[in-house]
Sequence to fold (782 residues):
Amino acid sequence: MAAVRPSPFPASTVLGYPRIGPHRELKRALESYWSGHGAWEELEATGARLREETWRRLGALGLGAVPSNTFSYYDHVLDTAVLFDAVPERYRDRSPEDAYFAMARGADGLAPLRMTKWFDTNYHYIVPEIGIDTAFRLAGDKPLAEVREARTLGIDTRPVLLGPVTFLLLSQPAPGGPSGFAPLDRLPDLLPAYERLLEALAAEGVGWVQFDEPALVADRTEEELAAVRTAYRRLGALTSRPALLVASYFGDPGDALPALADTPVEAIGLDLVRGRIPENADLSGKTVVAGVVSGRDVWRTRPDRALSALLAVRERTARVVVSTSCSLLHVPYDVERETDLDPALRHRMAFAEQKVAEVVELAALLAASPALPLPLPVSPASRPGAEPPTPPPLSGGEPAPSSPVPASSVPASSEPASSVPASREGRSPYAVRAAAQAEHLRLPVLPVTTIGSFPQTSELREARAALGAGRLDEDGYESLVRAEIARVIALQERLGLDVLVHGEPERNDMVQYFAEHLDGFAVTRHGWVQSYGSRCTRPPILHGDVRRPEPITVRWARYAGSLTDRPVKGMLTGPVTIVAWSFVRDDLPLRDVVFQVADAVRDEVRDLEDAGVAIIQVDEPALRELLPPRRASQDAYLAWAVDAYRRATSGAGDRTQIHTHLCYSDADQIIAAVDALDADVTSVESARSHARLLREPVVGGFERGLGPGVYDIHSPRVPETAEIEESLRAALRVLPADRVWVNPDCGLKTRTYEEVEAALSNVVKAAHHLRGDHQCRPLTVE
Fold:
């Protein structure tokens, strides 16, 4: 076998880059295409323009190695499934474009694939379905096409691929498969397709390929570690292939590192912001792509710590390349556009553009640095001995803190967490509360409600923009909000919902809205980050102590309640979620920051109750998101996260019904922690995940109200009444009727009123039909 002789890896690179566009160009092009107003060719042209702008900009910033195949029209995991023809049969009677978006969003009565969080980020990926008969083959040429596309611009790129082990570990078994089957069992059948791709890239003259294997930072079994060795020994044994860079990130690869180092791959990418290199790791002969610039936060890099880590790595390996800890997909484009931010705060921050510049500057510093006489710590987060004087940050600006490294903000494990100790703070026992609430609320069995938001119309978005630009005064804006609340209340009454919401027309986002009303936060104007598909959020900047100067939601909750005799929920975002979906200060432990936010939420709960709001929903969809990858750390995180929630809701009286909500987050893996929240009612995503949660044995012992979602709101399709009834029957098979609530998977803000009205009408019909012989009676508790 002839040895692969790679060209040296350039001194600097990044593992990926944002793809939605600096002005969210891809979002607008996607939504135009989905609505039928734009042609596929127009969407393709937008994609080509964004790719060109990214490649040219990375080159202009001086980056040594530019990645490609990081662009996606929806999701890179879905792209991988399509590339290797892992397309379920039910989608195959459509054109390639229609099949792609049907898997992502559903279409024409066809449900989409499951969607969940990408490790511990707020990015959502589409979960592939792999069966024993999935016929893998190289079915597309997207990575190759992007290489050629960049070369027409005079730019050589490094294709980025999702690695085969992570791809299979993130997949789920296709329905109807044999018991005990796991997608990783199909690794030997998948690898030939990867081999064909590598051979095609080599024939094109590609020098390096990047395989992303973030699943390696979680606890892995001996069989899974053996799969790593098998995959990369086999791919490395090809005589005609590019050189291989395998990148793990979001944590410490642990035992997977020696397994990977024992293969012929030429380079290994390591996250040295959230992980470190073990002392006994043998990296001799390998190029290490050292992720010392954080791809997960917005703080400038401390050059002294980053350079110390780089020098220490250089003492132990053949070559060091400076890089980001992970893809820059998780940060906004350019902080210099944020002219409304306090300059002192802005100068402490770095978005994607600034982080690329930091990588380039660190590479130059490393090249100019002499060899060290003794190894230094191999993590820029290490703090040995006394702190040195703070040097100026890279790329100018004020002195900056090091990249935040909260111990609990790490990627999620595929293993369920164990039980969680009960909080020491709380309300009366549930039996006492349930009796008081049943008497007060007088709800029927199978009560129907929604999660909170209703469609954000173009009129509302335009009014909010006009208010910010000074073209609309506060009175005019609030008049529009009141009219929208009245519309939402009237619609729910007409459809027959039992517990109403005000629709949240005054809120731009479930986290940003609260950040705008709490001390300690700043918000951006252009800091968009992709969440899924065309959906983007602007994570707030949590930079100081959190306090609530005055009530935030009470005025609108009181107004909504005045419009109806039915209960209207007060809607709050929980402390873990507010922190998880913000860029967080690094000078306090994450637990302490969450508890500051919990105190602010507790004040809001008390004020809502004093205003006569009988049901208060405190959402925690990010509870599962922050779960550490290693089981040894999971119980500690879940204990304080549960305590934070119970602290936030501890001020509510017995008659006040506390709801919570979790969506698209594999809540089945932390069901004991969900139970420990002690919410009176918990609504969870279930329709999109095909009722996975209901298969968990512990659900049958869930003592409080539970609402497994019956309507997937991330799809434009309207579920039929019979489909909803079957979802409810599945819940009723494992839960008593007086514990089951009826609700969608998530809030409705991304849908249209036409879709929502039709879907909720079917939801109400299904609930009423299944009440059947049940007398409409209050919820009870034994």
